[in-house]
């Protein structure tokens, strides 16, 4: 299709979207009903593939990786990388329904979600290669993340940073999200009855966590933090149905 967007995503063993950042782009596409197809890139293939398409690398101030997922190819043949830049490009491509990117909540939710993700990483990170990744991506992921944490992922899972320590660290950011969700009590979205990109940051986080959950220790515990959390997730579920093509 001439007007189709190509989304470059990282495959899971089940062949569906799993990671938070690609989810943000996919949710925006789903919400706007923009025609798109998925091109799956295993971790070692992201940089060489996008580089071969002459995609401009990430700004070192914004990312530690020169090339990353998500990226998109727009109908006019241009490429955009990084979820927020993609959202802005999609807003320009098709203004309605709006993502309300400049409502003040985008930055607040991004900050809070990132803190939750970083805090829970000692629990969730070691599960990614075991539960989600194809064999082609496992060595790359294990090597790069082990360097990041200064220990192997199995060691990280058993370290003092995991378990209750991780949840204790995540609590302030969870409170930030709770505060945001209660600012418009009529709900269920961040802006009340109006959907925005901030909603997709949050639902992308929870979908990611849901795939890593074991006996309710991540997703279940997160949903139990406040009654607004499951209400918000349920309201956004309609846009996570398309996750694999």
Features:
globular, Glutaredoxin, four-stranded mixed beta sheet, 11 helices, GST_UstS-like_C, GST N-terminal domain-containing protein, Glutathione S-transferase Yfyf (Class Pi), Chain A, domain 2, Glutathione-S-Trfase_C_sf, about 5% strand, Glutathione_S-Trfase_N, 2 domains, about 240 residues, alpha+beta
Short note summarizing the structure:
The protein is of the alpha+beta class. The protein has helices at residues 20-32, 43-52, 83-93, 105-124, 127-132, 138-149, 153-158, 163-181, 197-212, 219-223, 228-236, and strands at 5-9, 36-40, 71-73, 79-81. It folds into 2 domains: 5-93, Glutaredoxin; 105-239, Glutathione S-transferase Yfyf (Class Pi), Chain A, domain 2 (Up-down Bundle), CATH 1.20.1050.
